[in-house]
Amino acid sequence: MGQESVTYSLANYSPLVTYLPSVVLGDGVSGSLQREWQARISGDSILYVTSLPLASVIVEFYGSAISFFGNSTCALEVTVDTETVRQDAGADPTYQVQGLRQTTHTLNVTALATQNMNPELTVESFFISYEFDSAQPLTSTNYTAKDNVVQSHGVWTTASDGSISTTSSSASISLTFVGFAVAVNGPVGWNQTSGSLSVELDEVQSSYEFPPIPEDVPPTQMFYQGGLDPTGEHLITLSYLPPAGQGMPLFTIDSFTVWQLPASPNASSQAGQAPATLSGSALPGTTQSPPSSGASGISGSSTRSHKETAEIVGPVASVVCLAVLGAIIWMCVRRRRRQWPSRAVEKEKDKIIPYPPLLASTSAPSKGNLASNARQPTPVPSSSASQPATSTFGSAVGAPDPLTIASPAAPLQQIEAAATRYVASHRSASPSEQSQSPAPQQPPQVVGGLDVNRIIEIIAQRIDSAAHELEMGRDAAPPRYPAPSERGDV
After folding, report:
1. What does the pLDDT look like over 260-306, one tens digit per residue?
2. Could you list the residue ranges that cross the membrane (predicted)?
3. Which domains are present in the chain?
4. Do 468 and 477 touch, CB atoms closer than 8 A?
5. Three-class SS of residue 114?
6. 255: exposed, middle or buried (C-beta count within 10 Å: 0-12, 13-18, 19+)?
7. How far apart are CA 286 and CA 6, in angstroms?
8. Three-state secondary-structure class, residue 12
9. Whole-model pTM?
10. Are 284 and 255 spatial neighbours (Cβ–Cβ below 8 Å)?
């Protein structure tokens, strides 16, 4: 960011300028120059001249540079704050200093003794500069007694141009404002009279002496203070103190000028007027650098920036939401696809799991649940305890016949073992051996009304069918077993 500077001229008769040891109006008698300062009128200008060694002029200012214009036929001692330099005679401008830290400074110019018979120091004007950020152009607002923010206390008379005057020493006037600098403008000094201006700014009291000047001189800055908090509210109060032993002259204030930054609240809204640019509110005799764009331009660019940001963020947020939603849907579909093969495998496994074998019972089931009736054991007669236990087929218990079971109430493990032996015996015999040696004809074995051979055959078919499918695939033909007629079971 660049820096810009504002330069304004300060009249040599402003109360901000102090002449020591004293000032009188010029009477054309050169002898008075050896004793004090004289105020002389030269055309449209007022000059302050002295020939008194060690006479001085003091200026308090806020800024980063100051130029002192005048003329001298003697050497000068120039002090800024605490630094002192010697200025040779004849320099024009008389003295100039730049690059100061932007704050309140004090300039003191003192005339030195010389061998010249007629040494003179003439003060014409001062130029003061201060810098500001080019990104924050300055604005200024003028307030008069007609504005509500200007409050008068005591007896005052308001003119048509907004200036206000009083002849009462107890009268005062105040202004509440927001800004970083304030100036009070008006006519200063009266013929053959003097006095002082009392200023209270944010509870800080100060006093400035009015130099005697001729009448009808242009108004100037009666007071100026910069470096204030640009966002804080400030209060300035002014009153006039007449010289001791003299009556109260007419004290007049033309206007107040407040300088503001764009970031500061617009204090002019209280007065109901728009702020002027710095060049528009320039004081007489001041010069300023061209102002940049006003506060309204910055406000407008800020509004456009927010609008453009919203137009960009809206579509981006919509695209992000759609992408997240699509990712969620894709994950759900992928998870379901992973679950479909596992479900199909489970269904296939359910198909090859053999049904639990039925248990034989001594009588056909009647009403009720078949499973509950089949699980009831058949009691064995006590008379058979003395005889060897035989199966229904007449074989002894433990014979190698795969169709042999111990009793109609044999446990499930024995039935499955018998079915397994049955399957193994049928697989071990080749088809040619089965055709050459047909199985002996045996009557169907019935236990409690159930064909035990048929039950075992069904169980064996299911076990062998499941194993066959696992080895050969689901599309392979099931294994062939001899029909009952081939085995002679019919």
Report:
1. 877 544 444 443 343 333 332 333 334 443 333 333 222 233 333 33
2. 312-333
3. 3-295 (2.60.120.260), 370-379+389-487 (no CATH)
4. no
5. coil
6. buried
7. 10
8. coil
9. 0.52
10. no
